[in-house]
Specification:
- This protein has eleven helices and 14 strands.
- The protein is an alpha/beta fold and 318 residues long.
- It folds into two domains: 220 residues, P-loop containing nucleotide triphosphate hydrolases (Rossmann fold), CATH 3.40.50; 63 residues, Alpha-Beta Plaits (2-Layer Sandwich).
- The strands form three sheets. It has a six-stranded mixed sheet with strand order 6-7-8-3-9-10, with helices on both faces. A four-stranded antiparallel sheet has the order 2-1-4-5, with helices on one face.
- A hairpin with a 2-residue loop joins strand 9 and strand 10.
- Helix 9 runs antiparallel to helix 10.
- The chain starts with 7 loop residues before the first strand and ends with a helix.
- The structure holds adenosine-5'-triphosphate and magnesium ion.
- Magnesium ion (MG) binds next to helix 1.
């Protein structure tokens, strides 16, 4: 048996857009990662991070400036047709046939991709069940809410037999109920061996769905690995709030010497972010010893905060 290859290999990918106002813009700035077959992989990052551009390169919609990417062994630049045979993609912008019913949206999409009438009907039933769309099959595309349109669009991708599915912001605009149905369906499809690459800026969604992640900011991967590994990078952050009548200068200096991630002075309160509990305790003890500490609080940063911190920190780095 041959060795199981990675579904996706991305090596030092760069995309420079020529913009009128901002000059050359490095939307993707040396991104590398790989995705195993059957895995759900997340590209996570804030607006403008370069997630969609990366997806567009991998799905042959945009050419990279340099670097390379292979989909099931096929190069996205030199073998775009082979790549397209292996993939389907939900782009960030909504695209469903507004004049057709949900059922006919599925039918036309399935037919277009070469499914027989019988196969289309079977799969249409299965997918509408999976995505909770059964009661909407007769509704016209234009009459659906934004979140439901999105759900139909995502469901269409699972109608056809492509091994690799790209979902750019699949759940954008969905309410919690909608989102839950979609997330469950994506998980179910991955269990059957499909590889899914998705983008999101919601950490909780990435956490729930993805086995591995790359956190992207300013076109670079700032953290990557298994979801647990990435989470633990941020989870160690602690916030320490110290309140004084007036912040003593020597206390501030001592805190700075402890090398925290961040210090912010707001009036008579000092907010310190640290990575380790030991450092938090050391700072607290120093503040007590040097006097005039009135109150303190130590809290753990939420995942969301940790994510923002991670991005801020890297953005500030040279
Ligand atoms: N066709 C284009 N021409 C010029 N600049 C572009 C083009 N497409 C994207 N950009 C710029 O490239 C950067 C990355 O954009 P991209 O759409 O990849 O980000 P994103 O991570 O998907 O963001 P979002 O979360 O908002 O979808 C942004 O600064 C964007 O303005
Ligand atoms: Mg995007």
């Amino acid at each position: 048996m041959t060795k199981r290859q990675n579904a996706i290999e991305v090596d030092n990918l760069v995309k420079v857009y020529q913009t009128k106002n901002r000059g050359p813009l490095r939307a993707v700035d040396g991104i590398s990662f790989s995705v195993r077959q059957g895995e759900i992989f997340g590209l996570l990052g804030p607006n403008g991070a370069g997630k969609s551009t990366t997806i567009k390169i991998l799905t042959t919609l945009v050419l990279p400036t340099s670097g390379s990417a292979r989909i099931l062994g096929h190069d996205v630049v030199t073998q775009p047709l082979e790549v397209r045979r292996q993939i389907c993609v939900v782009v960030q912008e909504n695209a469903i046939e507004l004049y057709l019913s949900v059922r006919n949206n599925f039918r036309t999409f399935g037919k277009f991709h070469g499914l027989s009438t019988r196969e289309v009907e079977l799969r249409c039933d299965r997918v509408s069940e999976l995505f909770g769309l059964r009661e909407h099959l007769g509704e016209k595309g234009s009459d659906l809410s934004g979140g439901l349109k999105r759900r139909v669009q995502v469901a269409k991708m699972f109608l056809i037999h492509k091994p690799i599915v790209f979902l750019d912001e699949a759940t954008t605009g969905m309410d919690t109920f909608n989102k839950r149905a979609t997330v469950a369906a994506i998980k179910e499809e991955s269990r059957k061996g499909r590889t899914v690459i998705l983008t999101t800026h919601m950490l909780d969604e990435a956490e729930e769905l993805c086995a591995s992640l790359a956190i992207v900011n300013h076109g670079k991967v700032i953290a990557g690995g298994s979801t647990d590994q990435v989470k633990s990078l941020g989870l160690k952050l602690l916030y320490l709030t110290l309140s004084f009548d007036k912040v003593p200068e020597r206390t501030l200096k001592a805190i700075q010497r402890a090398n925290p991630v961040k210090i912010e002075v707001r009036g008579a309160t000092v907010e310190v972010t640290v990575r380790e509990e030991d450092v938090a305790l050391k700072i607290l003890n120093t503040a007590k010893r040097l006097g005039s500490l009135k109150q303190f609080e130590i809290t753990s940063a939420s995942l969301e905060d940790a994510f923002v911190e991670m991005i801020d920190k890297k953005a500030g780095a040279p």
